[in-house]
Amino acid sequence: MRAAGARELLRRLHDVMAARTPVQAKLDQVAELIADALESEVASIYLLRDGMLELFATRGLKQEAVHVTRLAFGQGLVGTIAESRAPLNLAEASQHPRFAYRPETGEESFHSFAGVPIIRRETSVGVLAVQHAQPRDYDEVEIEALQTVAMVLAELIAAAGLLDDRTAGNGRAAREAVSFRLQGLKLVDGQARGIAVFHRPRMVITNTVADDADVERDRLASAFVRMREEIDAMVSRAEFAGPGDHDDILETYKMFAFDEGWARRINSGIDSGLTAEAAIEAVSQAQRIKLSSAPDPYLRERLHDLDDLSNRLIRIVSGKLGTAAELGLSADTILIARNLGPAELLEYDRRFLQGVALEEGSLTAHMTILARAMGLPVIGRLKDLREQIAEGEPLLLDASGGGLFVRPAQAVVSNYEAQAALRAKKQAGFQAIRHLPAQTLDGTRIQLMMNAGLRSDLPALDLTNADGIGLFRTEFQFLVSATLPRKGRQIALYRDVLKAAGDKPVIFRSVDIGGDKAVPYMVDPDSPEENPAMGWRALRLSLERPGLMAAQARALLEASVGQTLNLMFPMVGEPWEFDAARAIVEDRRLRLQQAGIPHATGIRYGAMLEVPALVEVLDELLPKLDFISIGTNDLTQFLLAADRGNPKLADRYDWLARGVLRYLARVVTEAHAAGVSVSVCGEMGGRPTEALALLAIGVNRLSITPAAIGPVKAMIRSTTLAPLQAQMAGWLKTPGANIRALLLAAASEQQIILD
Ligand code: PEP
Ligand code: MG
């Protein structure tokens, strides 16, 4: 359907609905208009009444079916569309598994079927469907035309009083004034208490059909200018945890805001007769549907950013500004939203923001990465959240268990308060030993370093007084960027890290991308991986893309002027891989030398031990190394063949399994005998009991998450190591020994602080 045709259809729809005729007559005419415009034999309008989708009007199906055919959400094709809020486009309707034949409609003579949801306030309130006798696929333009019509219909139906807002899938009626708990997914750990503040009740567009397309185009153009200014201002605002990281994140945001393709699509909506607001919403709805079915989770996240921007643009264009951030927070707040973009989160006054609860959200979303950097607990995937709670309700968010308590009972609040007091007390205890060395009671000094990956992690170095950064995950910068970070950005980050560390050592790890840390610009869409953790990732990927590795090496070398660069490679599988990686770095060093460009005075090389077979060739590898770092997250999952991310295998993924500890003990002994320093940089080292086991097998360097430095230091300072090492040696040789139980008993005897 050409733009002029679409415009004409919208106009006529508008006229029909504005006329002083009975509602039923209007809907009948609308069905006629749509069928004519789309040259379809059938056009039907289903509307939600008393929780069922009822056929309200049709051209082409039997009239006896009107107000008789009724389908529940999820039932038949119409119910499926309403439930999923996504269109269906079928050449042969009866082959769809949800097809439910309704004899009263006489629809057996029609084969093809296309339907779109009629959505209001993000809820399906009906379905608009067309059918043809001949099997055919509807093209994208036709589906988009149907969506546009459905959007206008939603407004017109509401204006005609045909929509009872209470019937619009609102689960709130079921809600009693009792407390209840919603289960979601922990995105950022922590606990928080506050009142529910809705980020933004979604704007309801009340004017969809435009009088003058030129006026709408101008409104849109000025809104784009204003939005781009706002984004630029946000990028340059320095109030975020540390300057820099959000530049990378907002880069994606900017990419969309300045994307001419997006503006063009909105303008073509305006050409077809929509107001600027309606055209933005139409494009956004189409995107939302696309994103929810995108196979790549990273891509899905990026499209959330686009959704975030659409909302912002609608608010600007309609002059109806006012997110909760703009209105200003005044009390402890748990922010409620379907999803949040990174820039939206940055607009909030951090002093009042205690936590975030989302209907969507994921661990890899930019917003999640930001919230983690800000120390803000977040729960995601809370289904129908905004339907179940109301603005201003008291909430208690317990991210560790993924639970959101609504109007929490007194017992829950008391429990929370007791836990908070305990945490504060413990925290104060850790602060008190901040300046004391991580040394056992019998004098063994343990190097206690921290893991980092973002600029915003750097202040933790000072707060925890860690001995350095034992693992800097350089891939984080790649993960939060829309494109490969340029050399300048890489150098700037590495310089900032080294500056923050001062005299303390920093061990950089070359990028570990691929697998679950996929970045869109490096993904090979033609070869999805069945076992990404054992797939094309880390050093394997880097060696196949030597340009990437060389560029990173150069950035690291240039950032390390006047000092030694500590560099390790992830997932080394065989010694030759280490040699190949080292050769790339050495080649870069030589070139910098020849070009007279200042760079590091020396390089200390290390390898991550994560691939089990490497241990069988340590005799060959160790002489080449200055240090080795054991990545117990990956190594354990490979040793025990138990996926580190699978909650069902949590018991099997046991760091204290005798097999794992014996294996680690062997590595430590061999490395120390060869004069190579060993550290453990996996999560294992951040748990006091597991860290105690590591000490007992001879590990004296740990690199752990900053929050664990206090608890692990408290453990170290309360341990007498020598007898424990002797005990451990015995346990490892004892068949059937339950090391965890033995260790806990020994710790209790020694009064070692384990939490
Ligand atoms: C590990 O595998 O233990 C490790 C530290 O690397 P990552 O968690 O980044 O895979
Ligand atoms: Mg790893």
Folded structure, characterized:
By secondary structure, the chain is of the alpha/beta class. It is 44% helix and 16% strand. The protein contains 27 helices and 22 strands. The strands form three sheets. The chain has an eight-stranded mixed β-sheet. Strands 21-20-19-18-17-16-15-22 form an eight-stranded parallel β-sheet. Strand 13 (394-398) and strand 14 form a beta hairpin. Helix 6 (245-257) packs across helix 9 (297-318) and helix 19 packs across helix 20. Residues 165-176 and 238-244 have low confidence and may be disordered. Phosphoenolpyruvate binds next to strand 16 and helix 22.
Give the helix/strand layout.
Layout lengths: L2 H16 L4 H15 L4 E8 L2 E8 L10 E2 L4 H9 L3 E3 L21 E9 L2 E10 L7 H20 L20 E4 L1 E4 L2 E8 L14 H24 L8 H13 L2 H12 L4 H18 L3 H22 L5 H4 L5 E5 L4 H5 L6 E6 L7 H9 L3 E3 L4 H4 L5 E5 L4 E4 L3 H23 L14 E6 L6 H6 L4 E5 L1 H5 L7 H15 L4 E4 L28 H7 L1 H14 L4 E6 L5 H21 L6 E8 L8 H4 L5 E4 L1 H8 L18 H16 L3 E4 L7 H9 L4 E4 L4 H9 L3 H13 L5 H12 L5
Parallel strand pairs: 9-10, 10-11, 11-12, 15-16, 15-22, 16-17, 17-18, 18-19, 19-20, 20-21
Antiparallel strand pairs: 1-2, 1-6, 2-3, 4-5, 5-6, 7-14, 8-12, 9-13, 13-14
The structure holds phosphoenolpyruvate and magnesium ion (MG).
